[in-house]
Amino acid sequence: MQLAAFKAEGSGPSAPLANFTGSPTAGTALLSVQFTDTSTGAPTAWAWTFGDGGTSTVQHPSHTYSAAGTYTGSLTATNAAGSNTTTKAGYMNGNTPTTGWPNATNTGVPAGTTLAPYTGPCTITTPDTVIDAKTVDCALVIQAADVSITRSKVNDQISLDTDDSSASRWSVTVTDSEVDAGVIQQAAICCGNMTLLRVNSHGGQTAAQCEEKSLYCRVTDSWLHGQALPGNVYRHLGGFLSDGTLGSGCSGTWCIELVHNTVVCDHPVNNVDEGCSGDINLIPNFATMSKVRVYNNYLGANTGSAFCTYGGEKSTSPYPHADHVTYQDNVFQRGTNNLCAADGPVTDFDVNGAGNTWVNNTWDGDGTQVPPAN
Q1: pLDDT-derived band of residue 25, with 50, 70 and 90 as boundaries?
Q2: In whole angstroms, what is the distance from residue 156 CA to residue 201 CA?
Q3: What is the pTM of this model?
């Protein structure tokens, strides 16, 4: 007796059906959009076009639209049986104005969001992990690519250790979320390969930190504030801190982009006279400060700070001179002493450094120009 096996017609695998979502799909340029693949049919490869010349091959990419306009996005999803493409015309609109500076009303978890307890791992090692609409009561340690935290309240730190030998493969995007790090001697969100959008970050020694081995840091429409400091300790606080960048090794035009944020170090000095260094602290302790864009931010006043921003120079550092650092269209709050901070609005910025620019940075209220300091 001979047995023959026959494959029923149509029983084999089929090509995927491509589909995707993006969030947000409207806002002002720079508009940072987190795309999510929702294709069916188990695709194994993805090819994205974003309508502005940008492309990606990861499953859930982030993309920043740097110019105002309306953009068409497309996704081609592929598996062993074939491929399928979906195109969404005019899906991203980078022309919508944002109302006011970031604060409690337009950052953090959107009103009406119902949060459920997070029960997943606190150390994230699975690529493309999405944490959405959760209350997270542990420190999140990012050790995977394309991790997304959306519409969530994190009652501890979010960290990605850029000193780890595998860190170049890791990344995290935090959108429409609140991070309350409490009283810790670290940053609330640290230390790179990160995109923050409409984040309310507070607690910790600084609200967000990007270190010298990071491939990129993009912070947009976020509120960095509310540092924590015990009474009898010696710590330097800040709104945003970088100790240097990779320069030409970064994955993009800029190593660091700070766009339309409210950044303030608002903690008073403690009983040993310690407190804030400044709002935006570009201090080259470990590498040259290179390829940094500080655009259209509001720097809050605190007469307990030394300066409201440190601009990347440090004569006592092995990396004393910054290059390609741009401050443009930022607004400095005067404060009670009309100087933003105890000693002035800005220090350690060299307008003559290679590629450095200081353009239209103004005082709030009267719009007069804030001069750079050398």
Answers
A1: confident
A2: 10
A3: 0.75
